[in-house]
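Obj.: predict assembly geometry.
Materials: sequence records (below).
Method: joint structure prediction, all chains together.
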Amino acid sequence: MRRIWALSMSLKPSFSLDGQTLAFLSGQTIMDAALAAGVYIPHLCHHPEFKPHGSCKLCTVKVNGRNVASCTMPAAEGMVVLNDTPELNEARRALTQMLFVEGNHFCPFCEKSGNCQLQALGYFLEMLSPHYNHFYPQREVDGSHPEVLLDRNRCIMCELCVRASQDVDGKNVFALGGRGVHTHLIVNAPSGKLGDTDLAVSDRAVQVCPVGAILKKRHGFEVPIGQRLYDHKTIKDVQTGDGHG
Amino acid sequence: MAEAKKVRIATCSLAGCFGCHMSFLDIDEKLFDLLAWVEFDRTPLTDIKHCGPCDVGLIEGGVCNAENVHVLKEFRKNCKVLVAVGACAVTGGIPAMRNSVELRACFDEVYHYGVGLKNGMIPNDPELPLPFDKVHPIYEVVKVDYCLPGCPPPASAIWQFLTDLLAGREPKLAYESLHYD
Ligand code: SF4
Ligand code: SF4
Ligand code: FES
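Observations (raw structure tokens):
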């Protein structure tokens, strides 16, 4: 009896993450298993409530020597995964810097500052400057909706609002259009304006934006700077703590 | 005993608001500790007009016109260590928000259509520095050794940074001192 139990224990699938053994359920990704175990892998386009998108590559880990996106890579028995290494964190910092220069991020001017996951990742990865030359792209701001502001200057094309609108709200308000550097967030209305869609301020799509691209109007600075989500806690502590943020 | 040679520091504000300088002054009585170690070259405090050979140059503000570039290059030439201080030096900051608007439209708004303006005129005195069509962080123009973000960086961050640097340590900010806003 004891031997069978021992056997079944050893058969429970597991992999190694930075030397720690993590058990997983079949179908879980590396990210799922890590989040379930309270281990932080930096991520931006991933949210545990939505199906993975795999676009930002912040969650890149090394599996058996190769770089893969942990939010889309299924966990497999015996995998050797590296996550918190100087090399990977440097690559993540470079990706974060590229996201900053690719948009127009003026944090001192942004309502999301202190609650923003992009910014919080910058802090976590000790990013002191955006390093690369800024694109300063022309992006459209859409203030047509009575209760929601869409500022594409800060959009990081994570598609979380697209997924939330389709999968949770049962609507189809957002989409990504264009390719490569021309990728941009589209509003599904003949006019292309948010005010001409059925988006409601209570929609999950409005809440899920990790940055300051989708904001509720007339709620600016309700929480003062200094009392915001990442003001005193790192994104690692927040996302492996009670809530995902 | 001969006094140890003091570290010579120069500071200036390019396209900035002097907020970073104000935050620097917010180290308050620690300024006296600092003065035991450092002496100032060109800064708004000494009113020296040109930067001579220095150990450290602290630059506030981004680059928005030709004069900014001249000053920045003079600092780079003379300072062993050049530091971008504050959001504008590091990202272009608030002045760079004009980058999405054509320069001509900016000038029209300010000098022709601004509230209370009549018979407006865009200044074109040859003494005025040539404005650039876009504002840039200083590291896009010269090599920068360190960046100290924040709008402004809190006094605690400036103090931490300077004391690390003066002690020959790699500057490291505490989590709550690292801010982009
Ligand atoms: S969205 Fe985030 S990173 Fe961008 S300006 Fe706002 S606070 Fe800064
Ligand atoms: S608006 Fe926000 S949620 Fe939607 S794609 Fe852009 S960053 Fe992501
Ligand atoms: S979090 Fe995995 S690719 Fe974005």
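Conclusions so far: Chain B has a mean pLDDT of 95.
To do: check interface contacts against the pulldown list.
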